[in-house]
Specification:
Length: about 270
């Protein structure tokens, strides 16, 4: 029963986040920065709305468990295409300090979203995939946790490199902000290592989900309410990002409860 609850809330949190990002994109007429760093332009403005509608529909299908596997597999590859053809060229061409980890923040967030879509597909009920091509695409699903853990690991390092900035995000009513910066950095690093190495994955993913949800309530939601229009609505976007990451952590926890998890994942993907 607990497994199904984790899976249910993980899927809903992720689906609502994708739909929310789509709505924000439709309202703003701009790509959310973690989707694409390319500024809005009249020559491709219609693409922004097409992608926004696509995210909205995909998020609703995932939330209500409709055509879950094919929807999430296609979504994962769409997000990967944005990484390859939008983020990577933009970072190396337009950001002079591209070798700094901070330059890849949005790229890593999008990678985690792609990993979440793959994990949703992995935990979905068996569906007939249309054709060998889609079946082949679904074989990437077991690697979803690595997409997510790369973000966790790099963000954990960021907590030490950019400690002053991160500590400034700790609510003023919480004492010892530098301690919590280091503590959460270690928690992110440890979570990534635990999930990748399959050590205490269920417990660690649960604790990670709790930590992320606390961040959502105490940091991102507060900033979104106080400064909803900051930087084109990025505080609101951050709420959906954190909700999605919470959902991904819950999804990992639900899949970790399956006996002999690493053997089972191959059975979920059609041959």
């Amino acid at each position: 029963m607990l497994t199904s609850k984790f899976n249910l809330f993980g899927r809903i949190f992720y689906g609502v986040s994708i739909a929310g990002v789509g709505i924000l994109q439709l309202l703003s007429g701009e790509f959310r920065r973690f989707i694409s760093p390319i500024p809005a332009g009249e020559s491709y403005g219609f693409i922004i709305y097409i992608v926004g509608i696509y995210f909205l529909i995909s998020g609703l299908l995932i939330t209500f468990d409709k055509k879950l596997r094919i929807t999430s597999v296609i979504l994962a590859y769409v997000l990967i295409l944005f990484i390859v053809f939008s983020h990577i060229p933009w970072v190396f061409i337009h950001i002079p300090d591209s070798l700094e980890l901070g330059a890849f923040t949005n790229t890593l967030k999008l990678s985690a979203f792609a990993g979440g879509a793959l994990l949703i597909a992995l935990g979905s009920r068996a569906e007939n995939m249309p054709g060998n091509f889609m079946t082949g695409l679904s074989r990437l699903a077991p690697f979803g946790k690595y997409f997510f853990c790369i973000m966790l690991f790099i963000f954990g390092i960021d907590h030490f490199i950019y400690r002053d900035f991160v500590s400034s995000l700790v609510p003023k009513w919480i004492p010892l902000p530098l301690f919590w910066t280091y503590f959460t950095g270690i928690a992110l690093l440890g979570s990534a290592i635990s999930i990748v190495t399959n050590i205490k994955v269920k417990l660690v993913a649960q604790l990670l989900a709790i930590m992320l949800f606390i961040w959502l309530l105490t940091i991102h939601l507060v900033l979104a309410i106080k400064y909803p229009n900051w930087n084109g609505g990025e505080n609101i976007t951050a709420c959906f990002q954190c909700l999605a990451f919470t959902g991904i952590a819950l999804t990992i926890a639900s899949q970790a409860e399956v006996p002999q998890y690493e053997q089972k994942i191959s059975e979920r993907i059609p041959g």
